[in-house]
Amino acid sequence: MDEFSFIRSIQPKFYRQASVMKGISDDAAVIRPLDGDFVTAVDTMVEGVHFTRETMDPEHIGWRVLAANLSDLAAMGSTPRFYMVSITIPKRWSEQELQVVYQGMKRLADLYDVDLIGGDTVSGQELSLTVTVIGSVSKDKARYRSHAQAGDLLFVTGTLGDSRGGLEYLLTGSTASSDGLDYLIQRHRTPEPRITFASSLASLNRMALNDVSDGIASEANEIAAASRMDLIIDPEVVPYSKALERCYPGHYQAWMFSGGEDFELLGTVPEKDWAVVEKTAESVGVRVTRIGYVEHMRSDSPSVWLAKDGGRERLDASGYTHLKEEGE
Amino acid sequence: MDEFSFIRSIQPKFYRQASVMKGISDDAAVIRPLDGDFVTAVDTMVEGVHFTRETMDPEHIGWRVLAANLSDLAAMGSTPRFYMVSITIPKRWSEQELQVVYQGMKRLADLYDVDLIGGDTVSGQELSLTVTVIGSVSKDKARYRSHAQAGDLLFVTGTLGDSRGGLEYLLTGSTASSDGLDYLIQRHRTPEPRITFASSLASLNRMALNDVSDGIASEANEIAAASRMDLIIDPEVVPYSKALERCYPGHYQAWMFSGGEDFELLGTVPEKDWAVVEKTAESVGVRVTRIGYVEHMRSDSPSVWLAKDGGRERLDASGYTHLKEEGE
Question: Where along this sequence does the record place binding of Mg(2+) 4 (chains A, B) (predicted)?
Answer without folding.
Answer: 27, 72
